[in-house]
Each structure stands twice: as structure tokens, then as C-alpha cells.
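testing teh design pipeline on a random one, pls ignore if ur not involved
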């Protein structure tokens, strides 16, 4: 392939009880990227729309990720006689908490891999995408790039060596995402976290994470609902998001299985069984947030089981 256009979906990370290890892929929100072969060697970003981002390869999430896979390909296989140009159309707002940087990083490695003839599997691409994520957040983490690439739910069982497990979503599961138009930097959201946690909270969180994974495999919505609880991260971060408790409570009162902070925030997510409940929950969350006078977007989406794809 010498010219492709791809869709890079948004993601929800952490899912309350799975801080830095769980994520899911969304269907209706995402960036678009275009990749072209070029006679000039190397990676070049030729166009960016939708956000003010650097064109320098070493300062751009997509650029760093693309260079990581290209350099590794030349080490593993053969030198490349052509270059690759990238266009980025950002539709996921930066700092939104739904994987904007992950979409750029995952899209970059997926697109370059296609141009190179698909030498790496999607699972192998996660490692390269993490290099791009480090530019945005200061650390290599996979809880957004893994679901963006693989689709569905993903569990990062381990980072050394990297071990990603994909979990298919139950058919009736929908996500609602409310995105307030304020920005919370991942670095700021991490700064409020405490380095030590109590054994009591750790045990409760481990139980919830195990319950969530079991509920997904069993397609048991009651277990999923009982497990969507965060006793460690949410209490420390929710103060960064105006009216968080009110929005969460409105979602739960209208039938959501659970609700919480998407990634580092400020987006708030709710998981629901069925589209009709999801629509009711979205309306309730919307009505609650209108009282803040803060502009926001709201999205309803099925879980995307495919991940990043050619369009």
C-alpha cells in the first residue's frame, strides 16, 4: 500500500477499578490519519487539523511512535528506500481523557505498519505506540493504546515483558461519555495521587478488578455493575472535575451499570445495558451538567471490537 486513510478510535481507560491496566475502545469518536509513501526517506508530518500540535517528529506523539516502528523495522528486516508522510485530523480534543494522544500514537504505528507491508501484528504494535504516549504523559503506558489498536476491552497483565489480553465486549454494552470543555493534563491528574495505599483498599480494588473481568467473560451485567467501583483513584481526582458526583449519581439513578472518570479526566463515562438505557443516562447526565454553564459534548457508543482500521 502506498496511500491509506485510517480511523483511530477514542478510548476509555482505567474503568474505575483498573487504573493503568484496563481500557475499552469506542465506536463513534475518533481521529483520522492519512499515510503516503514519499521519495524522501524518514517520517514527515505534512498536515495537522483540529489541534495545535508540533510538526517536529521528536515532539509529536504520532511522529515519535512512527519513528519507533520504522527504526525497529530497519533493525529487524531491511533498510527502507522510501519515506512516509502523515496527515493528522484530530477530532478527539487533547486533554479530554478519552485517549487523544493514544489515538495519534496507535494510528501512527498502524499506518506505518500497513505501508511497510504489515510485518508486525496489532499486539506487537502496542510496544511502539507506547513510545509516543510517553511524549504526552511522561511514561510509557498501554491502557489507551492497547484498546485503540486491538478493540474491545483490554487488560495489561504486565509491562515487563508486555502482556496484553483482549476481552470481547458483551453485545448489549454501551458507553456514554460526557466531555466538559476544560482540560486536565495527565501530569496534573497524576500529581494528586498518593504513592501509598492501604491494604484494605488494595484488597477491595483487586476484588473489583477481578469481578469486572469475570463479568465481561460471563456477560453478567450484574457482576459488571457491582465491580465498577474505584476506592483508590476517584476520591483523589474527582475534585478536579466540576459537578462530578452529581453527574455520576444522575447516571446511576437512571440505570447506568456504573460511572466514573475516563482516563485522567475531565470526561465522565457511564456503562449501560442496552441503547435505550444509554439514551436515558445520556439525557440525565446532560441535564445535570447544563447547570454548570461549562460547554460540553456527550457521546453514546457501543464498544468497538475492531479498533483502529482502514477507511
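output:
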Amino acid at each position: 500500500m502506498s496511500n491509506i486513510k485510517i480511523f483511530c478510535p477514542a478510548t476509555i481507560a482505567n474503568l474505575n477499578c483498573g487504573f493503568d491496566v484496563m481500557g475499552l475502545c469506542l465506536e463513534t469518536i475518533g481521529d483520522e490519519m492519512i499515510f503516503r509513501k514519499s521519495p524522501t526517506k524518514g517520517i514527515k508530518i505534512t498536515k495537522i487539523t483540529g489541534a495545535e500540535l508540533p510538526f517536529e517528529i521528536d515532539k509529536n506523539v504520532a511522529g515519535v511512535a512512527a519513528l519507533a516502528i520504522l527504526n525497529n523495522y530497519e533493525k529487524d528486516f531491511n533498510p527502507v528506500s522510501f519515506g512516509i508522510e502523515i496527515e493528522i485530523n484530530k477530532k478527539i480534543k487533547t486533554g479530554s481523557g478519552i485517549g487523544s494522544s493514544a489515538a495519534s500514537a496507535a494510528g501512527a504505528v498502524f499506518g506505518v505498519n500497513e505501508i511497510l507491508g504489515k510485518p508486525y501484528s496489532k499486539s506487537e504494535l502496542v510496544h511502539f505506540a507506547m513510545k509516543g504516549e510517553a511524549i504526552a504523559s511522561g511514561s510509557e503506558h498501554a491502557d489507551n493504546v492497547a484498546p485503540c489498536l486491538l478493540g474491545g476491552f483490554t487488560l495489561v497483565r504486565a509491562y515487563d515483558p508486555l502482556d496484553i489480553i483482549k476481552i470481547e465486549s458483551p453485545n448489549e454494552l454501551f458507553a456514554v461519555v460526557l466531555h466538559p470543555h476544560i482540560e486536565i493534563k495527565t501530569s496534573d491528574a497524576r500529581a494528586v495521587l498518593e504513592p501509598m495505599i492501604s491494604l484494605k483498599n488494595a484488597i477491595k480494588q483487586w476484588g473489583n478488578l477481578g469481578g469486572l473481568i469475570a463479568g465481561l467473560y460471563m456477560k453478567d451485567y450484574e457482576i459488571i455493575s457491582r465491580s465498577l467501583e474505584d476506592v483508590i483513584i476517584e476520591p483523589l481526582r474527582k475534585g478536579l472535575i466540576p459537578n462530578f458526583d452529581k453527574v455520576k449519581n444522575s447516571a446511576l439513578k437512571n440505570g447506568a451499570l456504573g460511572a466514573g472518570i475516563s482516563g485522567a479526566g475531565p470526561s465522565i463515562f457511564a456503562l449501560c445495558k442496552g441503547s435505550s438505557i444509554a439514551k436515558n443516562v445520556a439525557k440525565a447526565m446532560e441535564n445535570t451538567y447544563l447547570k454548570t454553564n461549562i460547554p460540553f459534548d456527550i457521546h453514546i457508543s457501543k464498544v468497538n471490537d475492531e479498533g483502529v482500521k482502514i477507511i
